[in-house]
Design brief:
Layout lengths: L1 E17 L5 E21 L2 E4 L5 H14 L4 E7 L10 H16 L6 H9 L5 H4 L4 E5 L4 E4 L6 E6 L6 H11 L34 H6 L2 E2 L7 H12 L4 E4 L6 E5 L2 H11 L5 E6 L3
Parallel strand pairs: 1-8, 3-4
Antiparallel strand pairs: 1-2, 2-4, 2-5, 5-6, 7-10, 7-11, 9-10
Helix pairs in contact: 1-2
């Protein structure tokens, strides 16, 4: 079995504070994009993960399922990594979600989507999103997920070439004592009342289909802990025609939103040789 494991960006990310369980409360609008790792799965007698990277989260997903359902057989997973590591694109979480989907089929578990999401929440905070939809409002520590609808958008990703660990990023942000903007609530696009979803209670979302409006409302609290080069990339994307630009996840990857594919392609030509990783892509709807 061969599957694609898509990356995500955060169109918004509000870190609302540390919880009693040591996780952080967030509001976010997460969006899958057309950049993916490639995974292949084959039944085997033992568990083997073939990868050039350390992929503990794939192994964690496999062992969790084996433990829960007392699975005796193994699985061989081969990973071709295209998503930059520790870059805010949640490649590892996506790989884990894809692994859960594959195991559900190959081991004939017949688990519902809700059951998979519950298992995913115990493995990693971003994983439930990848099992829930292409665009979602996410709350809690990541386990509360509401699919929404946004228009397809043209993007450029730029990674400055260094890694940033999630643990270190949250620690640095805690020390900043930043003021939360609740920006995620401005981006919701469906007409359902989202009462009860984390800190969005009593909020009636609006119908927002305009790419320019979405770009205007980009926000990420982790911008407060980025190196100077990240802000320079944001400015460079805007100088090259982006409607706006921001970081994804805890960084350091930057994405810019472009009004048309042609404008994105032109900017890509100008930037592709200036940074370690530059990728022309689009959102998945």
């Amino acid at each position: 079995m061969q599957l694609k494991s898509y990356a995500k960006i955060n169109l918004s990310l509000d870190v609302l504070g540390k919880r009693e369980d040591s996780f952080h409360e967030i509001n976010s609008v997460m969006q899958k994009i057309d950049l993916y790792d490639e995974l292949s799965f084959e039944k085997s007698k033992e568990v083997i993960v073939n990868s050039q990277f350390k992929d503990d989260i794939i192994l964690k997903a496999i062992n969790k399922v084996k433990e829960l359902f007392q699975i005796e057989e193994g699985i061989t997973v081969s990973l071709k990594k295209n998503i930059p590591v520790a870059a805010g694109l949640a490649g590892g979480s996506s790989d884990a979600a894809t692994t859960l989907i594959a195991l559900n089929e190959l081991w004939n578990l017949n688990l519902t989507a809700d059951s998979l999401i519950k298992i995913a929440a115990d493995i990693g905070s971003d994983i439930p999103f990848f099992l829930s939809g292409n665009t979602c409002f996410v709350a809690g520590r990541g386990e509360i997920v509401q699919p929404i609808t946004l228009p397809e958008m043209n993007l450029i990703l730029v990674n400055p070439g260094y890694e940033l660990s999630t643990k270190q990023a949250y620690s640095d942000l805690d020390n900043k004592h930043h003021k939360t903007a609740f920006s995620s609530l401005k981006l919701l696009s469906n007409s359902k009342n989202l009462k009860g979803l984390g800190n969005s209670k009593n909020f009636q979302s609006k119908n927002s289909k305009n790419t320019k409006e979405i770009a205007q409302n980009l926000h990420n609290d982790f911008i407060h802990i980025q190196k100077d080069g990240v802000n320079q990339i944001i400015n460079k994307l805007i100088e090259n025609g982006a409607l706006n630009a921001s970081i994804t996840g805890k960084g350091p990857t930057v994405f810019g939103i472009f009004e048309t594919q042609e404008k994105a392609q032109e900017a890509y030509k100008n930037l592709k040789d200036k940074y370690p990783f530059v990728h022309l892509t689009k959102t998945i709807n």
